[in-house]
Amino acid sequence: MIVNEAYRYRLYPTIEQKIMFAKTFDCARFIYNKMLGDRLDYYKETGERLNNTPAQYKKEFPWLKEVDSLALANAQINLNKAYNNFWSNRKHFGKPSFKSKKTGHASYSTNNQHGSVRIEGNKVKLPKIGWVKLCLHRPLMENSTIKTVTISKTPSGKYYISILVEYENQILPIIPKNFLGLDFAVHGLYVASDEDNADYPNFLREAEKKLVKAQRKLSKRQKGSRNRNKQRLRVAVLHEKIANQRRDFLHKKARYLADRYDAIGIEDISVKAMAKRKMGGKFSFGKSISDNGWSVFTSMLEYKLAWQGKQLIKIYKWYPSSQLCHVCGYQNNDTKDLSVREWDCPKCGSHHNRDKNAAINIREEARRISA
Q: Most buried residue, 109, 178, 284, 314, by CB count within 10 Å?
């Protein structure tokens, strides 16, 4: 079985390499926007689709030849994918939008062709860039082949490289014996049927006072000044620290659960819809749901389980996990009220914690589905 795995490392480019990275970032964004604009204009005039390529623009814009041609080709691939998705399903995919240079985040991708991308020691060879120093905190998988790399720059000014490798690995599916149910929790990430609760630390809310103070200072700085740029970096570093803390916490939790259980059941809920839910005309869950990163966590959990031949089982979102008594199966419609956190079963008299009971029901439903 062919397996793809990505490795992310910190880059430490020289001043000349930073300039070349900036040129490549700008050229990739420019060619994407230029090709998209021409396609939209052509469709307005003729009602037909235009198939343009980066090579058609190099005569008019000769500075495009200075950067890696595969970076431009990958920008075209990304545009084609977005364009085709829009034409195939307009209800689900929106119209491709232009890329802004004001987001603070920049990236481009290139491919490995005949060893054009390779790692030796603590350096990586990149087309048109040369050898760039990196922090190789863990080695690539043995007997793996580098397929593509993505170079990115964060708003705080740090450079990273994501290396996608391909290798053969025989993954044998495991007949699940140990099951776990996870019930989504707005403030604590999840409540588990047979484990302690996640107790997510709420990194964003903990750093909220610092962010408010830093953002207030930034808003008072004069646009275009050096002090404003310094303060912008301080805000970016704060946001980056929160994101890193969240990612680290989610990775560790997902790894812990994936190693201990053969199958894990979760509800197939729409986090986006929950974040937009209103109570009394105000958003009630948006910040908490966005902070705990449930969607990212389930994605991590899914691939970490799949690497071991295990599975993540998604339960239908309308399954009444909070209403069913896990002891006798009685359905209590009173628990549709979210304020009911604990209840006694009218049939068997069992006392239930709402979230713990839901997690147990999800575990048993996952067991039934996998049978």
A: 109
Torsional sign, CA 15, 21, 27, 33: negative
Confidence band, pLDDT 50/70/90 cuts, at residue 280: low
The catalytic residue positions are 183, 267, 355
pLDDT tens by residue, 256-266: 999 999 999 99
Q: How far apart are CA 173 and CA 294, in angstroms?
A: 26
pTM recorded for the entire structure: 0.86
Spatial CA neighbour of 185 closest among 177, 176, 175, 196: 196
Residue whose C-alpha is closest to residue 33's, from 65, 63, 57, 59: 57
Q: What is the DSSP string of 263-322?
A: EEEEE---HHHHHT-EETTEESSHHHHHHHTHHHHHHHHHHHHHTTT-EEEEEPTT--TT
Alpha helices in the chain (DSSP H): 15-46, 69-88, 203-206, 208-220, 226-260, 271-275, 286-292, 294-306, 354-370
In Å, what is the CA distance from 57 to each residue of 34, 35, 51, 52?
9, 9, 13, 9
- How many CB atoms are located within 10 Å of the residue 240 CB? 15
The 8-class DSSP code of residue 102 comes to T
List the beta bridge partners of residue 108. 151
